[in-house]
Amino acid sequence: MNFNKYPENPIYGQNLGTAFDAYVTKVDGKLRMDFSWRPKKALAVSFSDDGIHWTEPQITLAYNEESGFEDNVNRNCVLRVDGKWKMWYTGQAHGAFSYICYAESDDGIHFHRVGDEPIMVPEYPYENASVMNPCVLFEDGVYKMWYSAGETYEPNVLCYAESKDGIHWTKRKANPIFIRNEEKEYEANRVGGCQILRHKDLGYLLFYIGYKDINTACICVATSKNGLTGFRRFKGNPIVFPKPGDFDSEACYKPTALYSEEKKGWDVWYNGRTGAVELIGGAFAEGDFKDEDFE
After folding, report:
1. Alpha-helical regions (H) of the chain
2. Contacts of 271 (CB under 8 A, 6+ apart)
């Protein structure tokens, strides 16, 4: 499988300042993109029929500086469970710490915080000063979270936790579950920013950021039968990488992916960076991942 970037790239954010760390889902036949809107210090949502042309943003949750842990809010994921919209997001404080927080909504647009404290904070040495970028699945009555942890500027490892209510979490004792492979140049420095999806044949697919160095990032894929252990990397990694002279000339961050039955292939959206500007782009590959595609 070869991923080719959309000819229309960048597809979103040109008039917004910086739009980054998207989370795309398909809801009621439409694509929904939750993303971080840096100049507004807010989380926002946009909708699309084709994954390329998106509506104007609507803010779903703004920062709350009075909280003491939300000088900025970003890096969220949103699920609809039993008619209730649930959001897990990152609250950042003093430019030094990141925590995972929780909000709910009846309409999927207007979210309100649940509780006055973060639902997850760094506790262990591998988490350093920050836990961030939650990706949550709801399976068999259990909320399952994959999250990034480590340094605040860019995290270092991927971890896992479970919850019965989406608010009170138990971290896996054997964390972290996914770390860099120093032998792979594209992720020799660290890994972070993931989305994990169920796959009909492979178990789980993990789309993640691989960092060649702290400023150079690309998009990679791995698979695991249970989403926790035995990860195998895609032989074609990295699937999306910086292109000199383009909007993503320095880094390609935070993948979000969906399989399209109509197009018979995978769409991957990501935020590309040149200098301080980040915009959202996408790539597509025909076909599906197979077991023999992984090391």
Report:
1. none
2. 13, 19, 20, 21, 22, 252, 253, 254, 278, 279, 280, 281
Residue numbers of the domain that contains 175: 4-293
- Phi and psi dihedrals of 292, rounded to 5? -75, -5
Whole-prediction pTM value?
Answer: 0.97
- Tens of pLDDT, residues 218-255: 999 999 999 999 999 999 999 999 999 999 999 999 99
Q: What is the C-alpha separation between 73 and 40, in angstroms, rounded?
A: 9
The count of structural domains within the chain is 1
Sequence-distant (≥ 6) Cβ neighbours of residue 155 within 8 angstroms: 130, 132, 133, 148, 149, 190, 192, 193
Domain containing 171 — which CATH number? 2.115.10.20
Digit-coded pLDDT (tens) for 28-52: 999 999 999 999 999 999 999 999 9
Q: Within 10 A of 186 (CB to CB), how many other CB atoms are there?
A: 21
CA angle, 79 then 263 then 14, to 5°: 65
